[in-house]
């Protein structure tokens, strides 16, 4: 934060560290004390989300699924419960940055329930460093961010399937990015004992939906079981019944943050009252299937209007990533005189892989409607995501602009 003063609900670490006596003179803790977490920032502008500690801590305690009690009011009683439960001390390796809520929330609930946190020393994603730490530190849970983390991790195991002893690893959790069925299946091939927990959540919308996959089940991409607090709403904020096929916006009740830090306008837009209940509506579009499951389509802010048809980038990205030559892909809409917006893909290939634009377009056409097939595909060697695994659409747009401008010269 540099020389900027801390928020009113926080204290300066540097100030406390400069005088050890201050650590024993902190003000009394209150349920209204606030916790500030940051969104992943796919637009390049992460936003601070403010929670009240009195709501957040009990929620994290409940979703840990370790204790069949409410969070005790006294720290001593929490400690007694942890000591009484012999299997409570789990070992979580957080592979993603802790500025992002996926890593931050897991860290908080693990510490709250007396578990161990394992961190990595490298600021960049190194799959072999992760598997080495899992084996060395006997991690039984691994936290990642979807395919951006899972693909290089499974590629390392494909290349050297007998290098690591990972038998103790029984759980892999993910949130914040799409986790494809193909990659889940490849991971379970190497880790048949593991349970894969895919959470559909965001910093401002916790516990929207989830998908659990084991070696005995069939993995799915973007298919989730919604929580009891999740609904899909139409343009008039009316809940949609299951099975209509109508595309709507996801809205989740339950635990709610106070809002965005220093942004009342954005807070009013995202958090709204529906039928007397406050919901968070972060902008994800989905359909509510006849069986009650949710099919996630993507963020409405990224939706591409191409000749009057709507194409969700995430759907096209996942189709591209099913090609064995593709390591990662992002899809954007580029202004076009004919189409309004032309579906445009920026693709990074696997090391030594070979694929051209024509081949990749044909691959997508086999899986999606013609209007969703990219009009142009730019192949790049540059990273398309930040260290937190979040898609960097701003960077992708700049890469596409440079490539297309040079092609037109």
Instruction: Provide the helix percentage.
Output: 25-40%
Level-1 CATH class name of the largest domain: Alpha Beta
CATH architecture identity of the largest domain: 3-Layer(aba) Sandwich
Integer count of domains: 2
Given the structure, what is the number of helices?
Answer: 11
Largest sheet: 11 strands, mixed
Structure description:
- With 409 residues, this protein is an alpha+beta fold.
- The protein folds into 2 domains: 88-297, Rossmann fold; 303-408, 2-Layer Sandwich (GMP Synthetase, Chain A, domain 3).
- 28% of the residues lie in helices and 27% in strands.
- It contains 11 helices and 21 strands.
- The strands form 5 sheets. The protein has an 11-stranded mixed beta sheet, sandwiched between helices.
- Strand 17 (304-306) and strand 18 form a beta hairpin.
- Helix 2 packs across helix 4.
């Amino acid at each position: 934060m540099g020389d900027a003063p801390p928020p009113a609900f926080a204290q300066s670490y540097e100030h406390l560290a400069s005088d050890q006596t201050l650590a024993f003179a902190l003000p009394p803790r209150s349920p209204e004390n606030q916790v500030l977490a940051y969104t992943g920032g796919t637009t390049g502008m992460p936003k601070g989300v403010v929670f009240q500690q009195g709501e957040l801590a009990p929620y994290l305690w409940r979703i840990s699924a370790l204790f069949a009690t409410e969070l005790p009011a006294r720290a001593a009683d929490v400690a007694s419960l942890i000591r009484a439960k012999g299997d409570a001390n789990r070992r979580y390796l957080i592979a993603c940055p802790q500025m992002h809520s996926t890593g931050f929330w897991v860290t908080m609930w693990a510490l709250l329930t007396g578990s161990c946190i394992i961190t990595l020393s490298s600021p960049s994603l190194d799959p072999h460093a992760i598997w080495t730490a899992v084996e060395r530190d006997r991690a039984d849970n691994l936290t990642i961010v979807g395919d951006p983390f899972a693909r290089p991790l499974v590629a390392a195991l494909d290349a050297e399937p007998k290098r690591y002893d990972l038998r103790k690893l029984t759980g892999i959790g993910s949130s914040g990015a799409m986790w494809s069925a193909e990659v889940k299946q490849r991971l379970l091939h190497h880790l048949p004992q593991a349970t894969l927990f895919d959470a559909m959540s965001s910093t401002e919308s916790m516990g929207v939906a989830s998908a659990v996959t084991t070696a005995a089940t069939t993995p799915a991409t973007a298919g989730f079981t919604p929580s009891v607090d999740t609904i899909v709403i139409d343009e008039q904020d009316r809940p949609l019944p299951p099975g209509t096929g109508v595309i709507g916006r996801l809205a989740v009740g339950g635990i709610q943050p106070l809002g965005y830090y220093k942004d009342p306008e954005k807070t009013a837009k995202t958090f709204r009252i529906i039928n007397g209940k406050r919901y968070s509506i972060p902008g994800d579009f989905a359909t509510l299937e006849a069986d009650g499951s949710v099919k996630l389509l993507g963020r409405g802010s990224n939706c591409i209007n191409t000749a009057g048809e709507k194409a969700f980038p995430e759907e096209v990205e996942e189709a591209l990533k099913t090609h064995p030559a593709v390591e990662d892909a992002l899809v954007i809409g580029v202004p076009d005189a004919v189409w309004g917006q032309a579906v445009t893909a920026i693709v990074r290939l696997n090391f030594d892989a070979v694929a051209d634009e024509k081949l990749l377009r044909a691959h997508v056409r086999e899986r999606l409607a013609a209007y969703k097939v990219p009009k142009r595909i730019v192949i790049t060697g540059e990273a398309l995501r930040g260290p937190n695994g979040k898609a960097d659409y701003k960077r992708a747009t700049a890469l596409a602009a440079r490539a297309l401008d040079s092609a037109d010269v």
